[in-house]
Amino acid sequence: MQVAVIGTGNMGSGLASILAQAKHEVTIGSRDMAKAATLASQVGHGAVGGDIEAAIKMADVVILAIPFPFAEETLKAAGDLSKKIIIDISNPITPDFQSLLIGHTTSAAEEIQKLAPQAKVVKAFNTIFAQLLPTEARAGKTLQVFVAADDAGAKAEVSALVKSLGFDAVDAGPLINSRFIEPIGEMNIHFGYFLGWGPVSAPMWPRA
């Protein structure tokens, strides 16, 4: 797939790397084009970096690998988002990582859908730490990625993308279920950073 990764932080870098290794066509977008170009050079496998609008224009699937508070600003710089699939990986958390900014009656994914009504928003990857993105970090384990979306076609495409990276794509229902998935991501942050587990935990939903 042609995938744009917007953001050059730990999650953006990790996702860009494994996407490129899995033979997807990767473009990296950032407000700081120099950072995007540097990351693309590090990722290799034909990845290219540039500004946000240019990266998105070349892609069918867009991964927003940015903190939720920057979503509105980023989407304003994105240009035409018609028919684009946007993957929201964010957890809408406070600066100290200990609480959620929103919840119960909405979610980060739903707010992003409101900001980009012409796009198809999918929730995914918010329960996976950046440290678990490299294939070697998951040796012998298949971690679950919960995928929620209102558009069935977009959910299917993102699920296929998830599987191509070695994860198990779990159908988590419509986008409104992000209201439940995002608190799971916050609980995982507590396990990883406040309860002593380290960033090597990931929630799994086994079937009895």
Give your account of this protein's structure:
The protein is of the alpha/beta class and 208 residues long. The chain is 35% helix and 17% strand. The chain has seven helices and eight strands; from the N terminus they run βαβαβαβαβαββαβα. Strands 3-2-1-4-5-6-7-8 form an eight-stranded mixed β-sheet, with helices on both faces. Helix 1 (10-21) packs across helix 2. The longest helix is centred in the last third of the chain and has 17 residues, at 178-194. It is globular. It starts with a strand and ends in a 14-residue tail after the last helix.
Per-chain topology:
Blueprint (H helix, E strand, L loop, with lengths): L1 E5 L3 H12 L3 E5 L3 H11 L4 E3 L1 H6 L3 E4 L6 H6 L8 E4 L19 H8 L4 E4 L20 E6 L2 H13 L3 E4 L6 H17 L14
Parallel strand pairs: 1-2, 1-4, 2-3, 4-5, 5-6, 7-8
Antiparallel strand pairs: 6-7
| Structural class determined from secondary elements | alpha/beta
Radius of gyration from the alpha-carbon trace, in angstroms: 16 Å
- Return the string of H and E elements: EHEHEHEHEHEEHEH
Q: How would a textbook summarize the main sheet?
A: 8 strands, mixed
Strand order of the largest sheet: 3-2-1-4-5-6-7-8
Task: Give the uncertain stretches in residue-range form.
Answer: none
Globular, elongated, flat, extended or rod-shaped: what is the shape?
globular
Ends distance? 34 Å
Average of per-residue pLDDT values: 96
Q: What's the total number of strands?
A: 8
Q: How helix-rich are the residues, as a percent range?
A: 25-40%
Q: How large is the count of helical segments?
A: 7
Portion in strands: 15-25%
